[in-house]
Specification:
This protein has 104 residues and is mostly helical. The protein has one domain (4-100). It has 5 helices and no strands. The protein has helices at residues 4-33, 38-51, 54-61, 72-80, 85-100. Helix 1 (4-33) packs across helix 2 (38-51), helix 2 (38-51) runs antiparallel to helix 5 (85-100) and helix 4 packs antiparallel against helix 5 (85-100). The longest helix is centred in the first third of the chain and has 30 residues, at 4-33. It is globular, with a radius of gyration of 16 Å. The relative contact order is 0.13. Keywords: Signal. Residues 1-18 form the signal peptide. It comes from Sphingomonas molluscorum. This is Lipoprotein.
């Protein structure tokens, strides 16, 4: 039989893992809504969540015209307007690696 302490440890670990998945799912959905393919969106979201803070990810989510982007260059133009070089660098490198299939 499992001890109460071990049970709570497993619950806490599961919650922590679920907490990591939520930002990635939100980023992926946002990228898809911005017009990126599901494959590229999933790849980029995985990389971006690992490299950007939650505050930076929220700023990306607040882009007013990102949903109107018709292409990857349009989306990156919107990201550039944020004025955050780290967000721009991570998003651009993720887009390049994921769109070409070089992301590993």
């Amino acid at each position: 039989m499992m001890s109460a302490r071990l049970g709570w440890t497993l619950v806490a670990a599961s919650a922590a893992l679920a907490g990591c998945a939520l930002p990635e799912a939100r980023v992926r959905t946002g990228l898809e809504r911005a017009g990126l393919s599901p494959r590229v969106s999933a790849c980029m979201a995985e990389r971006m969540v690992d490299r950007l803070s939650l505050a930076q990810l929220r700023r990306l989510g607040d882009l007013p015209h990102a949903r109107d982007a018709r292409s990857l260059p349009d989306f990156l133009r919107e990201v550039r307007a944020l004025g955050d070089l780290e967000i721009l660098g991570v998003t651009t490198s993720s887009a390049a690696l994921c769109a070409t299939g070089l992301a590993g």
